[in-house]
Amino acid sequence: MTTRARTARLEIWGGAECTVNRVGDRLFDQLRRTGHDGRSNDLDDVISLGVSRLRVPVLWERVHPSGSLEGDWAWSDAYLARCADSAVRPIIGLLHHGSGPVGTDLLDPAFPSAFTAFAREVAQRYPWVIDWTPINEPLTTARFSGLYGHWYPHHRDAGSFAVALVHQVRAIGSAMRAIREIIPGANLVQTEDIGFASSTPALAYQRDYENARRWWSLDLLCGDPTPCGHLEDALHDDAAARRVLREVLANPTPPAVIGINHYVTSNRHLDERTSRYPHARVGGNGRDVYVDVESVRHSDSLRSGFGAILEETWSRYGLPLALTEVQLSCTREEQMRWLHEAWSDCVEARSRGIDVLAVTPWALFGSMDWESLVTREENRYEAGVFDARTTPPRATALAGMIRSLSATGRFEHPVLDGAGWWDRCDTCALPSHGVSLPAGDMRAPILLFGAGGALGVEILRQCERRHLAVVCATRDAVDIADYASVHALIARHAPWAVINAAGFPCVERAEYEIDRCTASNEHGAANIAIACSQSDLPMLTFSSHMVFAGTKGRAYREDDETGPLNAYGRSKRAAEISVLRSLAGALIVRSGPFIGGPEEGDFVQRTLRHLGTGSRLPVLSDVTVSPAYLPDLATTSLDLLIDGERGLWHLSNDGRTTWSQFAYDCAERGGMDTSLIRPVPQHERARRARLPADSTLLSTRGVLMPGLASVLDRIFQQRASAAAHSRGEAA
Fold first, then answer.
1. Helix (H) / strand (E) containing 341
2. Are 589 and 505 found together in one domain?
3. 355-389 pLDDT per residue, tens
4. How many Cβ atoms are within 10 Å of 116's Cβ, its own excluded?
5. CB of 529 within 8 A of CB of 579?
6. Cα-only R_g, the chain
7. Are residues 403 and 519 in the same domain?
8. Quick check: is 1 in a domain?
9. Structural domain boundaries enclosing 588
């Protein structure tokens, strides 16, 4: 193992998710799908983070789409010119999980030479760039394209995997030699996902093979012949590929930096007891049938974190290291905990003499459809450091975290005191009632008012799931219409944030109990805002679609004029005004009507229960809404609170429906008799509260919640799972 002078301090690098993979005859372009390639100001946002190096994609398939001779350089020219004008040092990537333009692929004998020609072309265009990652994660891409069949050319055999790997490693070496003819000091920054495998005793042989295989791309680049026995066996019918393998070993190209791309799912567990995993895909190796699942979700498998992987890689190669992709698709505090763990492990590794250069927050502008390994276009977006669902992309709490780490090497936030989900038992929970944390829990909490209502119950459930310390203030514990009791509770518990989910619960009853409605909705919210202002605390509170008159003829946005038609709506609008007057930085979430709450009050459950009796069900036909599914509303609102958002936000599940149409959709999904639904106009209701005819909500700030179809999918999947579980218990 060699020793080298380490950088003065741990750096922050950056990168936008840039995969261009091929599935069949379709290319999935992450830069296009997240909109990053169409926003000229994105790079300014990245530079503002204080990153020292940036992974910049100049991808073969994008420059030469369909194998065209003329290159499309407009985006990369502008992007790299902006880098050159800044202190950011680019790391150019040429292939990111791709198979090349149409006309070639990883199994094509001409692939290495064609790729090298492209690398030379790029180096001639950008001769000032020092750092290069010609091909990202060659081993991973070879597995996905040649062994598992996920990506083009969709092969599923050991020979194709071996050819794809050898061709990529040969292409990396020859590309770097071509680049160095133009840029003599060019550095190879080679990235790979070096996941570790564990297994049951019966599959120890497969585990040992996979733990050896994870190093093969780096071994070959460094001229280590260790993988050759396995590869030669796999290539026994391919003399040309065997010659390429020998050429690779004869011309080693050791990296200047080994980049480790490590994800929470990188480490795997193999288990032949497939019945234990009803939802896992069953596979095998031709000898045994087994499942390959995430180690982090398996109680028999010990999780090895960033530190263990850094130690292993350093011990094996003795080359400078960097974490080149640190990303987690999860709620905001879990994303922050994952990055914090990566940073802390790198700091600790450096203290032991391991030459770790940097941590790279990945997917700066989010990513699309990685839940399906980018094999289907389902438009499932995962937010990154910036949330690209807003225009312009909105900086999340991760952005402030990265700025602090890059400037000072430190960052603090109360959410970091909770353990990440990968390090805790799923049953870990904080108190669901009362106003005290468990003895010995010293974390600064969120103070939750209205914990007994449908919204409060769901927020509490999400806080428990997310390991966010929370103190619950129910009606029995505090009267929010009494400022003194609110102020005293905040002073007693010293929260880092306050959520007001309290409020008068019934629109119709508000017409008869105006004073109680006003005290709860308006005066209570105002008192909490005043107390938060005096203690300099962020506040999240909730308003309603009922603040609008419903005559706009389109969905209402945050800046539209209000005009409530009923007492409930007037109290909510008065609360908005009072809160913002007392606390300008408050976050006020307006939502549509709740669905997905307690069974007795939930529209979906009540509809199905009524139809199950065979009785006709009258439902409003001329009231159009955009419902808010409580789990989505609660978790999205918590993300916004952690991000430090303020002002008015409209949050509802994307879509619009009348109540009668929604009842029809629920009945159809549930296999009920839709003819039992009787659409009725509002004027036939014998009720005092007038409802807005069309109070659908749309946000000018960004659509953060999924569509109604997704909501119904999840509701009925949960019902089916519950029914199956019940049948199983009965059996």
1. helix 332-351
2. yes
3. 999 999 999 999 999 999 999 999 999 999 999 99
4. 21
5. yes
6. 28
7. no
8. no
9. 429-730
Question: Which candidate, 588, 577, 586, 583, places its Cα nearest to that of 650?
Answer: 588
Are 617 and 674 found together in one domain? Answer: yes
Would you place residue 2 in the very low, low, confident or very high pLDDT band (cuts 50, 70, 90)?
very low
Report, as an integer, the average pLDDT of 3-32. 87
pLDDT at 294 over 70: yes
For residue 277, is pLDDT > 90? no
For residue 227, is pLDDT > 60?
Answer: yes
Q: Which residues pair with 249 in a beta bridge?
A: none
Backbone angles phi, psi at 130, to 5 degrees: -95, -35
Within a domain: 423: no
Token code pair at residue 433: 């009632």
The predicted model gives 424-429 an average pLDDT of: 48
Q: Is the pTM here over 0.90, yes or no? A: yes
Average pLDDT over residues 411-434: 70
Based on the domain organization, do 401 and 478 belong to the same domain?
A: no
Strands 11-15 and 356-361: parallel
Domain end call among 416, 449, 474: 416
Q: What are 566's two structure tokens? A: 């009923």
- Amino acid 438: pLDDT: 58
Contact present, 320 and 258 (Cβ < 8 Å): yes
Same domain, 372 and 319: yes
Q: Residue 6 domain-assigned?
A: no
Contact criterion met (CB below 8 Å) for 437 and 469: yes
Residue 422 domain-assigned (yes or no): no
- Classify burial at 584, counting beta carbons within 10 Å of its beta carbon; exposed 0-12, middle 13-18, buried 19 or more: exposed
Question: What's the number of domains the chain is made of?
Answer: 2
Q: What CATH number is given to the structural domain containing 583?
A: 3.40.50.720
Count of helix runs (H) and strand runs (E) in the chain: 24, 30
Q: What is the pLDDT of residues 527-539, one digit of tens each?
A: 999 999 999 999 9
CATH number of domain containing 221 = 3.20.20.80
601: which 2 tokens? 């009050």
Q: 674 and 596, same structural domain? A: yes
CA distance 556 to 81: 41
Per-residue model confidence as pLDDT tens digits over 88-119: 999 999 999 999 999 999 999 999 999 999 99
Same domain, 470 and 351: no
Residue 276 and residue 410 in one domain: yes
Taking the mean position of all CA atoms in its chain, how far away is CA 259? 22
- Rounded percentage of the chain residues whose pLDDT exceeds 70: 94
Q: Ramachandran region of residue 328, left (φ > 0), alpha (ψ -120 to 50) or beta?
A: beta
